[in-house]
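Fold it.
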Amino acid sequence: MSPADGVPGPHTPLSTQARQTKADIPGKEHGGKQRDAFFDNAKYLAIVLVAMGHSWEPLKGDSRILEALYTVVYCFHMPAFIIISGFFSRGFDMRPDRLKRLITGVVVPYVVFETAYPTFRNLVTGSHEEISLLDPWYLTWFLVALFIWRLTTPIWKLVRAPFAVALGIAMLASVTPNIGDDLDLQRVLQFLPYFVLGLCMKPEHFQLVRRRGLRIAAVPVFAAALAVGWWAVPRMNTAWFYHRDSAQELGAPWWCGPVMTLALMGCSLLLTACFFAWVPGRKTWFTALGAGTLYGYLLHGFLVKFADYRGWFDHPWLHRPLGEILVTLAFGAAVTLLCTRPVQRVFRFAMEPKMEWAFKQDAAELARERQRKEREREKAGA
């Protein structure tokens, strides 16, 4: 990025664009509003890292370097995406139209994909896995988490020190093994501080980390992180980065839960800041793909699982450096294609269904729609 990239977006300043693009879901802004290139770029790059990380899981056991890279990426890729989710949730309230979008854009995709993933496994492997809406399968935990986080947004706007409260909840969750697996609540609670942090952030906070000095400083920070990751491979359980288990479930003393929560929070925020520092603020060839990141997120799981079910990752040559690079590039390209507009059009019925038939008509919303149409007719007449 050049110094000029400190002004995000080609036409309007970041503060104006942020007010204009308060979306319900990152990657799914509605209407013809001015989008901010920085956030679209960040969402796309984060989702590519997610897909690459999933492709490394079956391969990393044979490569300490790959496992170190995996550890570093897992330290910040979901925190970055969740912080953006929180940032774009700042305008959420219990207004009927926003609740409708929450249902059609989060609940419906959850039901569809929570049904589709085990069905897909049964068809490919001949297994008989049951479908359960209470036990998020593979990638669908994020939709459950987003739904719960979004509903609690008005509470976080009300309380004092919301980030400190959310961090305290995450620390308590890390020492509470009896939370259970229903709705993946461990992940919901342990990732909660990142969402609340996004709610508390303002556009100028993103501008701070995109200064030239910080972009330069991010290089040695990431280099040091890779070195620490390489050192930690045989010494640390990678499951800590998933935030889905308590300390006791990971075989550690209870007090390790709060300590690791704070330590990982510090590392994640540092690397996330470095990641944001490197995200271009100008329009690039992949900026438009930021609108389809949820499509790429949910759909690439079928590719990863199909390759796993078919044993493709077991080929010895894929466990060599050249094979690992090929797999990384292949899944990066695949998730890129899954974020494109043609794919969005095909799968919009599952991701963004209209479902007007399912909701009562809201009088206030109808009045706003009539006013909008009247203004459009007046402009056309003028």
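Residues 1-32 have pLDDT under 50 and may be disordered.
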